[in-house]
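Ticket 4471: requesting a sanity check on a complex prediction with iron/sulfur cluster. Repro inputs:
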Amino acid sequence: MSIRAQLMMVMALDKCLGCHTCSITCKQAWTNRDGAEYMWFNNVETKPGTGYPRRWEDQERWRGGWMLDGKGRLALRAGGRVKKLTTIFGNPDMPLIDDYYEPWTYDYANLIDAPAGPGTPVVTPRSRLTGKPMDLTWGPNWEDDLAGTLAPDDPALSGVEDEVLLRYEQVFMFYVPRICNHCVNPSCVASCPSGAMYKREEDGIVLVDQDKCRGWRFCVSGCPYKKVYFNHLSGKAEKCIFCYPVTENGRPTVCSETCVGRIRAVGVVLYDLDTVAAAAQTTRASDLVEAQRELLLDPHDACVAAAAERDGVPHEWIAAARRSPVLALAKELRVALPLHPEYRTLPMVWYVPPLSPVLDTLTAAGYDTEDPDEVFPTVGDLRVPLRYVANMLAAGDPAPVQESLRRLLAMRIVKRRRQLGEGSPAAVASEGGMGLDDVERLYRLLALSPYDERYVIPKARREHAGAGQAHHGDDTLGGRGRG
Ligand code: SF4
Ligand code: SF4
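Returned structure tokens:
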């Protein structure tokens, strides 16, 4: 056993308004500078949709993340060292600026400086890269709220496109905010030939050492989530830093702090480094979610706590893991799921799947959504949203999504019954696989979301960081990394 502590985030998709406050505040904090114009460490995508960069989920095209080789061992999808050497000056798996978008600004001075004339002066868009006027044809939120005019380009629709395309406009649309997942098995780190990408020992945050980065960009292509960016001015890679100068002081990330919908929870989980490879090498796609859940250890277990102390995890971190909202949502209450577990990077940002679209569908079909006898059996029949969400959050296996939705449904019905003094709440909770205490806990975390319960972040204690793989320095963004 070799225990590590990790900061983890869970986002409840039902509650996301698509307001983009998180993206804007993140940009103001970290990427509001030259060379970073096109970068969105946090972006919010409408699903169905193609995402940012376009079709990032299509690993046949981008070849990011891990796969199993013929012997069932982990291998980078993009190939090993030899392949890298042959493509070091021309990597075919690299997204281009057009796959993201060409950033622009507006010629605001024209509003003031335009000579007097019969027409009203207007602002024209100008490229932030060339300074020249440009036509706007694509942007990071181009398909915001469109829910699928571009759906044929959404890789998660693969296999269900005919069913979905016929009726998705009535059926569902939801938002997926995305940051770097600070993976436990990060393919960006494994792809870096310079040893510049690293995972911090003390909290698992994945960073780029700006002094070591040589700008080869294999991290950009190696990340299946496309959450490493290349700064064309500095010639270095950059990425979400989980706001470490803030989290080190026990406060949530900027995107979390400013989230209007209170959709985010941040906390500590413990895992055993010795079991990481086995979890990532899980053979059957349908076992991936459970294997990644199993990775998260029970901090109440005396053996786990003792091993963690022995391995240098500070006492406050173990205590925080015992109150962890993310452990509760991901493992104890089993409602949160990892984004694309089939990429095998073991992401540490998980999502509670959206229930509202399912309920909308039920209502439209004439079901009484408060009646458990009508609702529970139908969850499994909602093939379209279930399979679509399963393609995103469960490697195509509907079972974990179904389990999560049943629990969310049970919570709603129990709360309603309690409020109205109707029926038997305990029976409904048990239909959802929970006890009444679990329902109350879920309700507090998802509905009430008190600040100090959804963010349980101990202050960092660097003197406890191990001397091993991780901590190579603390300079992560050219000129901006230190808090
Ligand atoms: S999501 Fe983040 S940690 Fe995971 S592979 Fe991509 S850049 Fe690396
Ligand atoms: S701030 Fe919160 S609610 Fe608004 S888009 Fe971001 S994650 Fe969603």
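Notes from triage: Residues 104 and 131 are 8 Å apart (CA to CA). Leaving this open until the requester confirms.
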